[in-house]
């Protein structure tokens, strides 16, 4: 079944790499892009009855609203059709505090180091299958 992915990242290269690898997996009919957490929240609220994301790939450090701020607002979104999207935190951070914080957040399925390559996509999809 074709699914929708939402990539939330401010880095064009990381977006391109993630989108290409998600596309190559063959499981995603739609790949949505947001450049920061606020843009993602707006997009999610606007798409509640349309192509709502099944999986969210969330960067930590972004302008306007970072990944942590997104997660706080994400908790407040109502009217989510079906299951809540699986959130995968993506970061180039090697700070253990970030990893611990992500792993303790009930909305985060797992923490993944950048870049999102084909092998990591396969590992992710095996976790949620």
Topology record:
Elements: E1 3-8, H1 12-24, E2 28-34, H2 37-46, E3 55-59, H3 67-74, E4 86-91, H4 96-104, E5 108-113, H5 118-128
Helix pairs in contact: 2-3
How is this structure best described in words?
Helix 3 links the parallel strand 3 and strand 4 (about 85-90). It is built from five helices and five strands; from the N terminus they run E-H-E-H-E-H-E-H-E-H. With about 130 residues, it is an alpha/beta fold. The model has no long low-confidence stretch (mean pLDDT about 90). The longest helix has 13 residues, at about 10-25. About 40% of the residues lie in helices and about 25% in strands. It has one domain (about 5-129): Response regulator (Rossmann fold), CATH 3.40.50.2300. Strands 2-1-3-4-5 form a five-stranded parallel sheet.
Strand order of the largest sheet: 2-1-3-4-5
Annotated CATH homologous superfamily: Response regulator
What is the terminal-to-terminal distance?
11 Å
Number of domains: 1
How confident overall, as mean pLDDT? 88
Q: Count of DSSP E strands?
A: 5
CATH architecture name = 3-Layer(aba) Sandwich
- CATH topology descriptor: Rossmann fold
The dominant shape is: globular
Determine and state the CATH class: Alpha Beta
The parts where pLDDT drops under 50 for at least 5 residues are none
Question: How many helical elements?
Answer: 5
Give the class from helix and strand content and strand pairing.
alpha/beta
- The percentage helix is 25-40%
Beta-strand proportion: 15-25%
Supply Rg.
13 Å
Oligomer kind: single chain
Largest sheet: 5 strands, parallel
The H-and-E topology, N to C, reads as EHEHEHEHEH
